[in-house]
Amino acid sequence: MAQLSSAHSRASLPKQLANFTNTTAGLDLTLRLFHSLVLIGTQIDFDNVTVMRCSIAASQIGLVTKTASDLLLGPAAPSDKIDSVDEKEEDKASGHSQISKPVPSTASLLNRIIIDSLDLIIPGSLLGWIPVGDLGVALAMLASTILVWTTAWAKAQV
């Protein structure tokens, strides 16, 4: 009976997708996924019409991603860091101890290193530090998006 009730409480896939894309990280990852797939489409030898359409779509998705992140995230508030430092100092002075964060596992740290390394390929190739073509950048973007997707999906479903 416990399995039956847990199956009914789980949301449908469209509802889970709506939850995911309603978060900033979910929307950003979805746009990154589409952008990387379209960029890969521009590098694969299709007919000229398909390559042109993929190229136009890539530029439009890039513009939407930039605009959406500016609108959703807005300017960073520099006072946030100052407040958190002040709160920590007050806790130390008053004798309150902070609850320590759990130590991440080796696998999660390795996953984070791989994701960050893949994400660094994009600016590194634009600056000429990493000799990677457009297809390599698109594949790196696709791989990092897929690696981050599961964590962001799970957080959005809570």
From TrEMBL:
Translocase as UniProt keyword: no
GO terms under biological process: peroxisome fission
Chain segments carrying region Disordered: 79-102
Pfam families: PEX11
Assigned GO CC terms: peroxisomal membrane
Membrane-crossing segments per the record: 136-154
Compositional bias per record (Basic and acidic residues), positions renumbered to this chain: 80-94
Location of the protein in the cell: Peroxisome membrane
InterPro entries for this protein: PEX11 (IPR008733)
Keywords: Membrane, Peroxisome, Transmembrane, Transmembrane helix
Keyword Transmembrane: yes
This protein's name: Uncharacterized protein
Organism this protein belongs to: Penicillium subrubescens
